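Recall that a protein's primary structure is simply its ordered list of amino acids. Everything else, from secondary elements to tertiary packing, is in principle encoded there. The following example makes that idea concrete.
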Amino acid sequence: MAAGKELEPASYIAHHLSFFARPIGDGGFWTLHVDTLVVSVLLGCAGMGLIWWVVRGATAGVPNRRQAFVELLCDFIDSEAKGIFHHGDRNRFVAPAALTVFVWVVLMNAMDLLPVDHVGLVTHHVSAEGFRIVPTADVNTTFALSLTVWGLMIFFAISAKGLGGFVHELFCTPFGVKPVWIAPVLMVFNLLFNLVEYISKPLSHSLRLFGNMYASEILFLLLWLWAATGLVGAFFSFWLGLGWAIFHILIVLLQAYIFMMLTIVYIAMAHEHH
């Protein structure tokens, strides 16, 4: 589909921002974004499968380039987890979870570097109504990831403190419950304060990643659209697009790093007693 020929600019952008959606029952909330699900699963399998393949063939001698890269990646993630998580064996869950999150988010973010019209030549045969290839530009993906981390945070908090200790912290921190005569009021304020904290974590965790990737997707579409306006537009959009793509590599890695670090931080915070 050539931009500026079959579609007006608004229609062109709207088309590329349309999901390959399939409703369940009457639709509404229960609508599956098939493109997001398929691309996410394929990238997850590819990323973890590649690391598993490299590690399975690792040797104790001089590593090849693939093995050296994976070892550097694992050492990097492990050092970050070691500096934050001090509540047990990080290698049992925290470091592997952080590695999974980082690799998966990097791969999903990196899909934004592919030219959408060229990809559309293939995806058009699957869905003529639209097919988005950047899972992290779908707020459902980022919320699913952040809510999973949020659930793990609550799980580890209850595991470390017990259900009674977890509930006690909800009602008794950070303001305490003394003096006794005002304890009911303080308990209400403690609960509200903690609820704000618990609700804000998945919101900020998910929307930060989504906002950056969605904005990048829009910018690439505008540059791609400009390229179809003529020779001058193609010239400037090429160089601007190249510059943005190079800069976007930093965004891809930085956003994955932030998401991974917050995952470690939230799980570490769940183990802390107040």
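The beta strands are 21-23, 31-33. The radius of gyration is 23 Å.
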